[in-house]
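Running log. JK asked me to keep both predictions on one page so they can be read side by side. First protein, sequence followed by its tokens:
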Amino acid sequence: MKKEATAQLVQLAVGAGFTAIDTANQLIHYQEALVGRLCSSLRSRGSHEIACFFKRSLHRRMARTIVPPTMRSANLTTQVTQSFDSSLAHLHTDYLDSYVLHGPYQRQGLGAADWEVWAAIEGLYRSGKTKMIGISNVTAEQLTQLCDRATVKPMMVQNRCYAALGWDKEVREICRAHGIIYQGFSLLTANREVFADPGIRAIAQRLGTGLAQVVFRFAMQVGMLPLTGTTNQQHMKDDLEAEQLTLTADDMRLIEMIGM
């Protein structure tokens, strides 16, 4: 969604101290080739991680088809490998740190299409082309099925995280039980009402920091890896500094219950 500003913003983020870049081979929302323009110039590839998504063609929340036209007629396994190879070319690399299925093809359970795509992603992992594999936009039921039946279990989950739903507590608990990294996104944009709460405002005032940084620190202390897509250079620096904060047990309980 950053379009032509993508390369400049990635450069700002790397300069601020971010070491992980999240992108996808999908032009509606990402400019992966512009991310790659910076990746190719990084002094040390090993110091920065690159995560990419396989965006499946039947996204339940979008009417537009999102698999590139040249891939649409191919079977799902071929779509995965073609999309992956295209990402490698865009990013000027011969491997990815993680490759993530953008989400199941259906709202409940996992179907044949999901298992075919996951098998193809497992193949990329076994080949050494990606160091980790995972899934996004997944329910607790779907994640449980995947953990129970997959040959190679997901190593990371990336979900939109709502305070009103306990900050995705059920999925987070499954991740904790299976040693899966939980990445939370939309921690700010999906929870705007949180910032009006006098309790969280008092915490921010006491710590001398911003409301966003309190939310990010909360996420870290409950075991999440928080994601941010800010375009503001100062916010980038502030968000990284959230790692230096410490919330008390009372702070944590308050934030855990906000919005519920």
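And the second, directly underneath as requested:
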Amino acid sequence: MNAILRSSLCLSAMLILPALAQEAKPAAPAPVSGERFTTGTLTATVAAINHQTRVVTLKGPLGNDVSFVVSEEVQRLNEVAVGDKVTVDYVVSLAGEVRAPTEAEKKTPYAVSTEQARSPDGKAPAVGLVRTIRAVGTIAKLDATIQLVTLKGPRGNTLPVRMTDSAKFNQLHVGDTVIMTYTEAIALSLKKTAPEAK
């Protein structure tokens, strides 16, 4: 772009922009939103398995149990037995957006969806799970001293969330509607352990 053309464009912008600024209406502020996520890997033990109902219970390293149903799409479940070690890679996220709910969200203020995938033939049995919970909640309490927001879900349960962005925290009000989306993506892979030497 040559100097004459650049000068012409700058002059045009200087003449047009003030006129547009007078006519333009202020844009609505963007809704307050935020997201946090964490990732990790842990090893769990198959504590129980029911091949008929396809319910698998895992015991985590802290002794906590988690049960879930393995879908029919996941084959070779018969290769999994009590005592097998599984590696669990997970990503957990929580997102929130302060805004009015859509008509669909008003109709179903609490919705859960789950998807599963299985490992290809020839590979060790594995399953991937993605569970998403969407809930329409409200801000029940605000604690400005530690920037803590207490959210109340559609079932009456509460969830404290600490915010790190002061500007966003200062835009919140008790009673605001918050659309919360909780997602957990878990990849379980079977890791056979060698029998203990006697």
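Observation for JK regarding the second prediction: The longest helix spans residues 3-23.
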